[in-house]
Amino acid sequence: MNNLRNELFYKFALTVFLIIAFFEGALMFALVKSFDTHLKDKLALVAAEINPTHFNKEALVDIQHKYKVFPLFVRLIKPMNKQQLKNIKLGYKIQKIRINGVREKVLSYSVEKNGYIVQIATLYSTNDDRINIIKTISILISFVIYLIILMIGYKFIDTIAKQIEMSFAKLKRFNSNVSHELKTPLAIMKSEIEVALMNNTKDCEKTLKSMLQEINYINDITEKLLFLTKETKKIKLEDVDLEELILELFEKYAEKIEFELDFGDEEYDIKGDKTLLKMALSNIIENSIKYGANKIVIKLEKNKHKIILTIKDNGIGIPKEKLPFIFDEFYRVDESHNKKIKGFGLGLSIVKNILTLHKAKIKVNSDEGKGVEFIIEFPLITHQEKKSA
């Protein structure tokens, strides 16, 4: 998984680098072009200011400061004849000349004015220095932006990689648990059939009952998996009496666990899917039975805004640090201690899914060795829902 994280980060870093390099190159090209155009415009303005017949050093200094062209060279040429005028190239020209023993790049501009050729020139190197300073600053800014994007990108990629790791871990756990859970009942069914074939017909009823029990267990797993994998879960809303529903569950599980029921004198009607709600509450009760509880307390309360259903057992409890994960699919609190307990972490995930469909909230309180308390809050039926009913 670290290789995946590193590969994603490398590709991300390379992509960002290429994008920034492209924009940096485009910016520098535009900057050089802009400086070049700006400098040419200045030389043209300087040439327009010069009067060849009345030009002196003072005028040169004034023009130089006015247009901020440093250094500024001016040359006035009086052609002897028209042929000489034709031989002089007008317009802009970039050339390298030696000044004080150093080769310098010079931009010059030549224009014919009042019978004179006015040549204006300045050093490109001065402007190159400005461009280089801006280039350096721009590269530093781009580098800082690159580092910031890399840091943000690394955190983002790390988060995605962790989510992928969790998904792989869940899938691995799921494959292991499903293989184990399906292998056991299939092995039992196989052995029971073999025994039935070897023995007389009187043993067949017992064998068939055992096989039916295991088939029901496999069917239960299949139904739970199908429920969780449905892309759209629609529920058929009907009036559900929670008190009546809990009494049905009491009849179903009374032989397996002791119940203490506290309903008060209120009516506890909600809108929901009775079958799904029964499945959700059954999963909670079965979890209590699986994990060592011999007594379960169920309490119903009602206030102005909601109906509160509390289910509390005296089982082995759940460590507090594990509580945030108990509604995750395929999550089991402690695999090493629970290998003998049937199930593979779908029950409470289904509970959460069903309650979410009913716009109900669920909270869990628990300490290891002190049992588990589930608090479920159902919204009250609104006046509009009562009328529509």
CATH topology descriptor of the largest domain: Heat Shock Protein 90
Distance between the termini: 54 Å
**Helical stretch count?**
9
- Average pLDDT, to the nearest integer? 81
| Structural class by SSE content | alpha+beta
The overall strand count is 11
Enumerate the strands of the largest sheet in spatial order, edge to edge or round the barrel.
6-8-9-11-10
Shape: elongated
Strand content: 15-25%
What helical percentage do the residues reach?
40-55%
CATH superfamily of the largest domain: Histidine kinase-like ATPase, C-terminal domain
SSE succession: HHEHEEEHHEHEEHEEHEEH
Show unreliable segments: none
C-alpha Rg (nearest Å): 43 Å
> What top-tier CATH class of the largest domain fits best?
Alpha Beta
Q: How can the largest sheet be summarized? A: 5 strands, mixed
* Domain module tally: 2
InterPro entries: BphY/WalK/GraS-like, HATPase_C_sf, HATPase_dom, His_kinase_dom, HisK_dim/P_dom, HisK_dim/P_sf, Sig_transdc_His_kin-like_C
GO molecular function, one term: phosphorelay sensor kinase activity
Enzyme class: transferase
Protein name: histidine kinase
Helix/strand layout:
Layout: H1 2-49, H2 57-67, E1 73-77, H3 82-87, E2 91-99, E3 102-113, E4 116-123, H4 124-198, H5 204-229, E5 238-241, H6 242-253, E6 258-262, E7 269-272, H7 274-290, E8 295-302, E9 306-313, H8 347-357, E10 361-366, E11 372-379, H9 383-388
Parallel strand pairs: 6-8
Antiparallel strand pairs: 1-4, 2-3, 3-4, 5-7, 8-9, 9-11, 10-11
Structural overview:
By secondary structure, the protein is of the alpha+beta class. The chain folds into two domains: about 1-145, Beta-Lactamase (2-Layer Sandwich); about 240-389, Histidine kinase-like ATPase, C-terminal domain (Heat Shock Protein 90, 2-Layer Sandwich), CATH 3.30.565.10. Helix content is about 55%, strand content about 20%. It has nine helices and eleven strands. The chain has helices at about 1-50, 55-65, 80-85, 125-200, 205-230, 240-255, 275-290, 345-355, 385-389, and strands at about 75, 90-100, 100-115, 115-125, 240, 260, 270, 295-300, 305-315, 360-365, 370-380. The chain has a five-stranded mixed sheet, covered by helices on one side. It has a four-stranded antiparallel sheet with strand order 1-4-3-2. The two termini are about 55 Å apart.
